[in-house]
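Data availability (excerpt). All sequences and predicted token strings are deposited with the supplementary files. A representative entry, FolateBiopterin Transporter (FBT) family putative, is shown inline so that the format can be inspected without opening the archive.
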Amino acid sequence: MMQECTEDPISSNARKRVLRSPRLSQPQIPLSYTRDPSFGPQVSVDFATTKLTDNCLSDSTHTDEAFSSTLKKRELTDVEKDTRDISIDALGELTYIQQLQQWAQRLQRTFGTSFVMLVATVYCAQGFMSFSKLALNYFFKDNLALEPAESQALLTIVLFPWGIKPLYGIMSDSLPLFQYHRKSYIIICSFVGLLSFLILSIPNGIQTPFGSVMVLTIQSFAVAFIDVVIDARVVEVSRLDPVNGANDLQSVSWGAMAIGGVIGSTLSGPATETLGVRASFFFAAIGPLLVFIMALRMTEKKVSIASSMCLHSASRQLRHLKEAIGTPVIWKCALWIFLSHAVVPSYSQITFYYATEFLHFSPEFIGSLSALGFVFLLLGTLLYNAFFKEISFRRIFFISQLSLAVISFLDILLVTRVNLELGIPDQIFVLGDTVIVDVIGRLKAMPVLVLSSKLCPKGVEGTMFALLMSISNFSFSVSEFVGAIIASFLGISRTSYQYLWCAVLIRSTMKIVPLFFLFLIPSADPQIIVDDLEFSVEESSRSESPPSGTIRHDHVAKSSPDVEAEEVGMKTRPLSVQ
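Structure token line:
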């Protein structure tokens, strides 16, 4: 029962962009996951997911005339209108396949095949990252011969780029590269990601921890940057269809990530076991290669902005972000999001070593657990939407956090081998933990997403949401680092797990601590307070280049691949660490 808790970030695997509409008092969240990206989950997609259109412009109260001046509306023929305006009753008479065909045709007409393929490719590649995650764990354990605590500390460094994602959004908004705000960044970053995997795949190539961490950190930076930039492009293009555009593209992205995650998780075990980690890294390069090819075909209007305007746009966004985070209701909730994870030590690599060295779980079994996680994370999302979304934030956090703490104590049965005395095999015990923790963890992750969306003032919605997700990502890095310190202090190594039960006991006890900080969460709806805050974008800066310097929902952050993978069921380790 040492399944890594999926309660986390957001996201991501999310996760994925639960954004507030100015016309709704309650954020609209996907009924099924799926991006966390999802940090979504992501197998069954609700085509009525979060509406971003009304918030795409920095002034969320724009009129139809203002919207028209910002974007030239796409004229539809009578045939297209008749096709798109299918009534709900008519849809009910169509088969599921026919509805999908109608939806695909609308996507093709509105956004073009090349752009839809680009979005699908990028998010499918992100989901496919689960393929390399298992190989990475074995690479640290076998090729680099690292101790569990060392491996965990180094992976914390690798995930650092996911903690500063708002900076990437500000950079791509304010600084066009080779006259493109999006295309150039995607091309460069996908090539960097491709090159990183190829370097790692060289036989007898990098064999030092320093070199490995350096390459992996660069690769992590490339993926995180692409994640932000493609979100920006999705929001921009979704304006071509103010009614369905945002929902349709979100469905494409989450569905593609689900497909990539399931494929990557399913193949990761057999590939690692039969081909080895180096060959697995080589085939993992397929993801960034496809993104690179599709990015070359990407169409985007060229812009030209003076360097002074770039600096002015970036400084304005940072100033507004600083003012927003200084609001008491925002910084208190952000503090709780951080503390709820950071105070709980995490043992991801320690438990991975324990599963492979002591329990002798095969790569294929671990990969199967990862794929299975998608199903139960989806179940958790459905349960939240069906029964828990109307419950106050304090109450749902109390219920989910306390439940996770209780379940965590049961992990002691596994590490002390009591489960065998009870007649429960290790694999069945861990499988049951995967189901329970994924579902309960999702019941905590979803309200964190909703709360974060409510904390975003008008004018800085996207950047603020990205900041909150980065805070959550950073809290997980702190949790992993603290866990590495505790494991080292207890003398836990790949040959000695004598005091692993003590580490689990500390972790389980600390899971109760966040309950004492729930006073930081407002008893009333925080959106009532946040709605009084507004940071509008100056017209002078927008006049230079419409896509530049605006603060949009394009920077909604997904969680890191590690965290998001867990959130969407792409876990490559069978044991819980939180």
